[in-house]
Structure formats: C-alpha cells, structure tokens
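Hi support team,

I'm opening this ticket because the web form for multi-chain structure prediction keeps timing out on my end. I have pasted the exact lines I submitted so you can reproduce it. The total is 456 residues across two entries, so I didn't expect it to be a heavy job. Is there a limit I'm missing, or should I split the entries? Thanks in advance, R.K.
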Amino acid sequence: MLTTSITSTDLLFLLQGAWTTILLTLWAMLLGTAGGVICGLLRATLPRATLPLAWVLDAFRSVPLLIQFVLFNSLKSIAGLDWSAFSVACAVLGVYAAAYCTEIVRSGVLAVSPNVRRAGRSLGLNYWQDLRYIVMPMATRIAFPGWLNLTLSVMKDTALVMWIGIVELLRASQIIVTRIQEPLLVLCIAGLIYYFISLVVARLGNQLEKRWQEND
Amino acid sequence: MIEIENVHKSFGDLDVIKGVSLTVNKGEVVSIIGGSGSGKSTLLMCINGLEVIQQGSIRVDGTEVHNKATDLNRLRQKIGIVFQQWNAFPHLTVLENVMLAPRKVLGQSRAEAEEVAVRQLTHVGLADKLKVFPGKLSGGQQQRMAIARALAMSPDYMLFDEATSALDPQLVGEVLDTMRMLAEDGMTMVLVTHEISFAREVSDRVAFFRNGLVHEIGTPEQVLVSPQYAETADFLKSVL
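Hello R.K., no limit was hit. The queue was backed up. Here is the completed structure from your submission:
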C-alpha cells in the first residue's frame, strides 16, 4: 500500500500558488496584449519609423526572462522604487509578453489582404475606420492562435518569479517537496494543475475559434 | 462628368499610363478594352484616388481628384468601384458588408442602412442570403454582393474593374445581368472588361487601350465592328 505524508493543507498551499500563477498570467497578458496591439499596429503601419522600437523589443525577446527579473529587481532598488515583488513580476512579464505580442499583431495586420482594405477605402471609409472595422477584426482572427500560444507559454514562464521571492505554483510545490521529500508525487500534482489551467484556456480559445470558423 | 486629361502613371521605372485623356459624360457607359498591362485597370484606380498619378489631371464633377486639398473619402462616396477579386469583408455577413459604409461613412442609422441594404441586395438577387457569411457564397454571388455594397452608397458613378474575369464561366452571366440592369437604369459607368459582346451591347463608347495610351475610341460599332487600326483588329481577333 502506498502511503504519503501530503496533507490537505499542503494541497491548499499548492492551490494558493496556482492562484498566484493565474493572477500573474492575467496581468502579464493584459499588459502584454495592450502593449502588443499598440506596438504591433505601429510596426505594421510605420515599419521604418518604428525600427528603434523593434530593436528595444528584440532585446526583451532575446534576453532570458530570469536575467530580466533579476536585473529589473535590482534596478528597482537602485532607483528607489517602492514596488512590491508582485508588481515587478507583472511589469517584467508584461513587457516580455508585449515584445512577443507585437510580432503576433504585426503579422496579423500584414496578413489582411491589401485588396480588401482597398475595397473598404473605396467605399469612403477613412484610414481609422478601415483599421477599426476591417483590419482589426480580420487580424484578430488571424493572430488569435499565436496569441493563445503566447498565453500558455507566459503562464509557464511565471514560474521564474520565484527568483524574486514570489510563491507561485512551482515554488509552492518545491517548498512542500523540501518538507515531505516526495518530489514525484508533488510535482505530478503541480503538473496536473498547470495542465488543467492550460486546458481551460485552450478550450475557451478553441470555442472562440470555432465560432469564427463557422463564418468562413 | 469624369474628365481625364493627359494622365501619366508609373510604378517605379515602369510607365503604365503614358498620357491618357478621356471624358465620361453623365449617364454614359464607357468600356475600356485592351491587353493586360495596357494600363486600363490602373486608370480606374486613379479615378477614385486609390492610385496616385505623376502627371495630368482627373476631375470628377469638377473636383480635382489628385489635389492634396481634396477630401478623397468624401469624393469616393459618389464613385463606386467593383474589383476583379470581389474583396468581400469575410468577418461580416452579406447584410453587414453592405451596411458598413452607409452606417460609418454616411452616418445612417441601423434601420436606414438596413432598409437600403436589403433593397440593394434584393435588386441583385441576394434577398435570401442576408445573414450568410461571404465565405458561403459562390464567386458570382460575392461579386453581386460587392455591386450591392457599392450601390448602397448611392454613387453617381460606377467603375467595374474586370468584374467577371475571376469568375467561373457559368457565373459570368448573372453578374453581367446585374451590370446590364444598372446600365439600363442610367448609371454612369466605366467598365474595364474582356467581355467584348457585352461591351458592344451596353456601351455608348468603347476605348481600346494599348501601351498605356488610348489607341482607338468611338462607338461600339466603330471600334468593335469596323476598327480603324490594325492593332485594334488584331486584339479583337485574339479575344474573340
């Protein structure tokens, strides 16, 4: 008979960690999507003028997230900012997600057929109306799978915030492992929780995509 | 009235239009024929300012199209254009496709725009497809929707850029019928077309484009039946 010393308090502790993971993901994707939409539109419409922006975003995509966390955390202390670790985590993850989201949005906007845009303009729609009523809805459908991918990837990347002292799902499971010395079981449970969160996100996404596909 | 005067248009080093002059009077149907690369489609894009020109002038009802001070969005409201690739808005239903511009550009209420859209769609024979998405329609139906979409803006002019060229042969007829109906209603139209017999039937005048110039222009009988130039005759022989 298999015995374990894991308690219901431990499970609750894991779930609390999972909640932190979800919150971090939500904030990161909220910031990242907002930033990504703005930067992506700028990059798609003014590719030359926004080249410096591309370089900056490239830096955020290229430097490992862990280094970004540690650097920003130190920078925060040097600059005397009174931010909580959670705010730092959201900011860094948000910028990181925005850097990726920019490219997703840019590719979506560029994938909208110029002929369809031309048809819109020929009806008298101005630049912004064309953007709002034709480009954005079409680009959203094109970019959505990539965006969903980013969400899932950011959710797993949130595990890195443990390095700046936040207890999220992975850190919570490590703490329990240290105490009860049953890494296999605890990590399996943590993995299942990650899997379950991903499943819900992916399902919701699929439903939305299916609704769009019915129209095509 | 559309007045085109000595228009030159180039894409980089490539001169597409090399000094075209053409006047289209109110209520007139003018067909433009010619080989590919003769600049006929490009000219249509220049008429409503979708393409810029390098030299010359185009005036629509006296308004200079290629003048920085001209409000192109306003001007385009009275110039409908139908493209070879019908360019439906795939995320909107047929009804919404037609209602979009009247609502957003003309500021019509939903009810007003819907009434106009339903009338135009009925006119082109799509009354039973209002709630359908364009992806579910045939090419001919999508093209008729595109015509209704342009007509919903109550334009004074309609430009057709090879409106039937991308259609399966059996779908060409339904689109031509719709265009014929418009011509009979007295719409001022400029057609770029390869449908010579249709051009002959509906046009008041036919222009043959060659190498970015109007090579020959006249009544359908003059140009299509007894052309003056050998190049026109050769072209007609090649497409008939």
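A quick check on our side: The mean pLDDT of chain A is 93. Let us know if the file doesn't open in your viewer.
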